[in-house]
Design a protein that fits this description.
The protein is of the alpha/beta class. Helices cover 45% and strands 16% of the residues. It binds pentane-1,5-diamine.
């Protein structure tokens, strides 16, 4: 597997290499033999077991070039610009829906996907809400948005009797101000935060009413001074280290923070909760861009990822629920029985799904979000 640096990092590295070695090694690397088989993947960060990629290459001879992002908007911008060079991407439901409408994907050649039967019918029918007929995408993982926290630090700041299972913990200015002292982060993602927090205001997660959305962003505006950073991946390590005490984040990422802290044996106890008012359940799915340079390799990769043991290895590694039903037999019991990963019936009742915003609403939300981020 070739884990690539983010684009900016790559450019800096490129400059350094050029100066040092007149580019010989670099250009030798760039000129791939015509018969070399490659698949270029663009996936969320912290979202795969790297050993799975190595095993795929060993078995098939297909080299994996792997880039990451932590935000649907980055992915959307690159796909809409065209010629991204990617063979597989992993948008969340509403972005999948919008990108299908924009003609960004090629239909899956299902004759080449013999492991399709392993997928979870209920999850695939939910995904059909974004991709009618499941023509373009298969679910990779699904999860929720909620609150990750450092049990001891939060108890100390908020007191022993304040329950953490409510959005009020982060939206109430006096509570947020206390959390500021031990470190509060939130996703840099209005498309997750708005639908997740709308139920707190008595509105539906999928509300398209601008007034409803403004309730959330006005509340976030009032607490923005208490938020150390809006960022969609840095909170994992920050929670694990005890650098922050709370993050509004994604289920599996918070549980990865917990795993890192447990492995480091650093005394940090991280927990995850879906607030009692309700939150968002989302689906991230594999799709092949229309202009993918290696569509056959992409299909080979997808079929490999749908093997039950492979899908389970990824779930065991990243702590997100797999879209693969057959994988459940191979998922570790502590993951399968963790309602933060595979929600129980009571949690399911509190979860909602959301669909894409139209363009005008998207622009409106972008303005609202700029105000939250910059204060202007
Ligand atoms: C992976 C985050 C994926 C969840 N780090 C976003 N839908």
């Amino acid at each position: 597997m070739a884990l690539r640096l983010p684009r900016r990092g790559r450019l800096a590295a490129l400059g350094a290499c050029l100066a040092a070695a007149l580019g010989t090694a670099l250009f030798a690397g760039a000129a791939r033999p015509a018969n070399e088989k490659v698949v270029n993947i663009y996936n969320w960060s912290d979202y795969i077991d790297p050993q799975v990629l190595d095993a795929f290459t060993r078995e098939t001879g297909i080299k994996v070039v792997y880039d990451t992002y932590d935000n649907n908007e980055i992915l959307e911008t690159r796909l809409l610009a065209g010629r991204s060079g990617y063979d597989i991407v992993v948008p969340s439901g509403p972005y999948l829906q919008r990108l299908i409408r924009a003609g960004a994907f090629r239909p899956l050649d299902k004759a080449k996907l013999k492991n399709l039967g392993n997928l979870w019918p209920d999850i695939m029918s939910r995904l059909a809400g974004y991709d009618p007929g499941n023509v373009y995408a298969i679910d990779y993982m699904w999860g929720t948005t909620g609150i990750g926290y450092n049990v001891a630090m939060v108890r100390e700041k908020l007191g022993p009797n304040v329950p953490v299972n409510s959005w009020s913990v982060v939206l109430n200015p006096s509570s947020a101000a206390k959390l500021k002292e031990c470190g509060l982060m939130m996703l840099d993602s209005p498309e997750d935060l708005i639908p997740s927090m709308l139920p707190f205001f008595g509105a539906k997660a999928d509300s398209k009413r601008w007034d409803d959305m403004t309730l959330v962003t006005d509340a976030l505006y009032k607490v923005r001074g208490s938020v150390r950073k809006f960022h969609s991946s840095e909170y994992i390590q920050a929670l694990a280290n005890g650098d922050i005490c709370m993050a509004v984040g994604y289920s599996g990422d918070v549980l990865q923070a917990k795993k890192r802290a447990d492995e480091a044996n650093n005394g940090v106890d991280v927990a995850y909760v879906v607030p009692k008012e309700g939150s968002l359940m989302w689906f991230d799915s594999f799709a092949i861009p229309k202009d993918a340079p290696h569509p056959d390799e992409a299909l080979a990769f997808l079929d490999y990822m749908m093997r039950p043991e492979v899908a389970a290895a990824n779930t065991n590694f990243v702590s997100y629920a797999s879209g693969n039903l057959a994988a459940k037999a191979h998922v570790k019991p502590d993951i399968l029985n963790n309602p933060g990963i595979y929600p129980d019936e009571a949690t399911m009742q509190r979860l909602s799904v959301n669909t894409a915003w139209d363009e005008r609403t998207q622009r409106f939300v972008t303005r609202l979000w700029t105000r939250v981020r910059t204060g202007r």
